[in-house]
Amino acid sequence: MNSKNQTRAHWEKVYAEKSWGQVSWHQKSPEPSITWIHALALAKDAHILDMGCGESYLIDALLQKGYTHISALDIAQEALDKAQKRQASPSVNYLCADAASLPNLPPVDVWHDRAVFHFLTHEKEQHAYLSSLKQSLKPKGYLLLATFAPDGPLKCSGLEICQYSTQDMQSFLGTEFALLKEERIDHTTPSGSVQKFNYALFQFLPK
Ligand SMILES: C[S@@+](CC[C@H](N)C(=O)[O-])C[C@H]1O[C@@H](n2cnc3c(N)ncnc32)[C@H](O)[C@@H]1O
């Protein structure tokens, strides 16, 4: 099995074997993501992409706020099936794809990624992600990126991750991404341990 198929198989197994409340990244309420996105005061038909959505309640929260153009993308079809069963709305387009080799996406106003990009540990994958991001994000569009912080865990779901400070994110993204907001967040897992996250909001201002 090549590494891409191994990644997919890993996540399919996770979602087949564990319930949503059991996974370490589970949040009852998708904060601060929903508050930050809603504060952008975008049109309700703005295209919001949740990259590596899993079974997150962000989709539910966006629908509750009246957003009508949402893409929910994950490498695991199992996660998408579960999310879709809970929330089968015509406003949500479910897409099974790999963040490191994305298909062309319709232009995006908000690209949300919580705990997905940090799994891309090879430079080639990270650059492929950045290239898709720049291709899909509209000029003046927003990137909300949340990763484990430098004093956070080194692994998630048994897989190695890359930790990022806001400065690390900025130097990877480049000067076309303007930092608007950042926050360190302590995430408490269902088993009670605390994980240090770094959340940052950027605006894409291509030259
Ligand atoms: C730690 S979970 C976070 C899920 C969700 N973003 C949240 O905050 O609840 C990581 C998610 O990323 C997905 N994922 C991992 N690698 C991926 C990849 N290369 N492309 C797309 N999704 C991926 C997994 O299937 C999983 O749903």
Please count the helical segments.
Answer: 6
The CATH C-level class name: Alpha Beta
Radius of gyration: 16 Å
Give the structural class.
alpha/beta
- Strands of the widest sheet, in order across it, are 3-2-1-4-5-9-8
Helix content: 25-40%
Mean pLDDT: 96
Task: Using the alpha-carbon principal axes, give the shape.
Answer: globular
According to CATH, the fold-level topology is Rossmann fold
CATH architectural designation = 3-Layer(aba) Sandwich
Order of helices and strands: HHEHEHEEHEEEHEE
Bound molecules: S-adenosylmethionine
SS strand fraction = 25-35%
Task: Outline the secondary-structure elements.
Layout: H1 3-17, H2 33-38, E1 47-51, H3 58-64, E2 69-74, H4 77-86, E3 92-96, E4 108-114, H5 123-136, E5 137-148, E6 155-156, E7 159-160, H6 166-173, E8 177-188, E9 194-204
Parallel strand pairs: 1-2, 1-4, 2-3, 4-5
Antiparallel strand pairs: 5-9, 6-7, 8-9
Helix pairs in contact: 1-4
The structure holds S-adenosylmethionine.
S-adenosylmethionine is lined by residues 7, 11, 25, 52-54, 56, 74-76, 79, 98-100, 114-116, 119, 156.
